[in-house]
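Re: Re: ligand-bound prediction request (bumping)

Still looking for help on this. To restate: I need the protein modeled with beta-D-galactopyranose bound, output as structure tokens. Inputs repeated here so nobody has to scroll up.
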Amino acid sequence: MMFFGGDYNPEQWDEAVWKEDDALMRRARVNLATVGVFSWALLEPEEGRYDFAWLDAHLDRLHANDVSVNLATPTASPPPWFTLAHPDAMPVTQDGVRHVHGSRDTYCLASPAYRTAARNIARALAERYGEHPAVAMWHVHNEYTTLCWCDHTAAAFRDWLRERHGSLEALNEAWGTAFWSQRYGSWEQVLPPRATHWHQNPGQHLDFRRFWSDLVLAAFREQRDAIREHSDRPVTTNMMLPGYQNLDLWALGREVDLIAIDHYPDAPGLDAAADTAFAADRARSFAGGRPWLLMEQGTNTVYDGDRILGKEPGDILRHTIGHIARGSEGALFFQWRQSRAGAETWHSAMVPHAGADSRVFREVAAVGEAVERLGEVAGSTVTAQVAVLHDADAWWALEVDGLPSADLDYHGSLRRAHRALWDAGVTVDFAHPEHDLSRYRFVVAPALFLLSDAGAENLRRYVSGGGTLLVQHFTGFVDEYLHARLGGYPAAPLREALGIRVEEYRPLRRGEHIVLSDGSRATAWSELLRTEGAETVLTYTHGMLTGRPALTRHRFGQGEAWYLSTGLDDRGHAALITRILGIGREPSGVESVTRHSTDGRSWQFLLNHTATAISLPESAHDLLTGAPVSELPPGGCAVLRNSL
Ligand code: GAL
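Reply:
Sorry for the wait, this slipped through. Here it is.
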């Protein structure tokens, strides 16, 4: 069975609406509702006094209507009584401003009072509903996002640093405090990276991000374990990709029973489809290849800077199928019924303000029917032969002050690499630089400014074992402490695999374009490098770099390693990736992904992103409609079962 449904907040409505909800959920084939995400003030109206009667009634009603429940712990939005009783549990910004209630996500994960309150409400819910027949899974918290720089945080950060570095001496060494007279003489002097005068210490920034990620994991585990004492249903929390949450999502992925993500594209049209694949491929990768779940999407929501754009007719199906194609076990939305009051009154929903007699609800109901027909696909997986490397340390390292260029965009670089592969019709996994990469025929490292010794060694091993690696500029320039690699970049084992040595980095001026020897254009960055075994494929044609290598290729062991020392524009970059992969053809505009089951069955998901109809090689049975299909209309989707 595939899941279909969304966040359900019946506490915003009355009985007449609940009755209509029951009928409309049946019509839309809803089988999973996420309940209670922001219900703390109702569930615990005062400290220690619980009111479950209303939730009992809704769970029983949903169950009677064949809708399972993804039961949330409401800890992302503590009620006003909590704030007033525990003002020290409110988050403090980097500038020292303490937030109060009136929105959501106002809590400090390092505050003992908050942690206790969160654990208590999670336990109380699990005690009451752990065995409830409606409960299919648990949704801990909501998108752990809040960062805090308060005194509780400072104390917890010091404990974490003691554990990580062992001694103050080691901390001073790691953070390079010999520079700018930052040497710490006692632990009490160490603070979280609060607002300061000029460049912040980079090591302090990076360690703070790592610390925060560990703190989130600890807070999640506490609730998860409290739930597990009373329930055997899977426990998850929803991730928001790619950079909204300051978390090591690989690590979070190891803690949850099921990876769940929320996805709201940030541009319309083809970009939204590419962004869907980007999010979905990351989700599958964090899940270690296992199926995962799209926990939230919008029926009509594309965030575009300072506005919310509507989706085009057909987008709800295309985005839903885009996620399921890449391993999601269904599609849920935020939210079932559009709120008539409150901060997200204008956020889209499955049932809009206009009600069931609306384009949106009709599309939702049709998508629900289509998803229901995909039941046999559940549990099947997607395999990829190409990986893009992602590491939270490398991301956070590119955020520090004092880097040589403002054009170094971590997620932008990953997105670009993924997009070039997506445009070429290649299914992509994400992998960590220290993962076993041997099953991939091609690996792209777009932005590993920070690369650990183990990571550099692993990449060397991957190439020598027969892999093809593309490394992009400014990679492996620092170790896990953000200390520069001396004697030439990148880290020695990677240098050996690449057969090059970078001597000097030369960022380009804002807006400056340079031209390489084949006429391709590049921006942002250039490097003076010399080959040490690699062949030069392209050279620079400007200034002191004229005639020097810009793109190199090195046969090493059984494999080969490419190094691109500049920011090729999108076209050149995409052409390079397809050239390395040996794919000559123009992109067809039809996205095709296959899910395989262990018993040998497979399903081909097709999405036509072009404005013209595409004929299929032969007529086939389309699971989405239950009818034969021989042609995909513009924007059309199909799911074909491949025979054994
Ligand atoms: C998500 C969040 C939902 C809702 C949604 C709006 O990040 O989990 O509660 O706010 O965004 O797009």
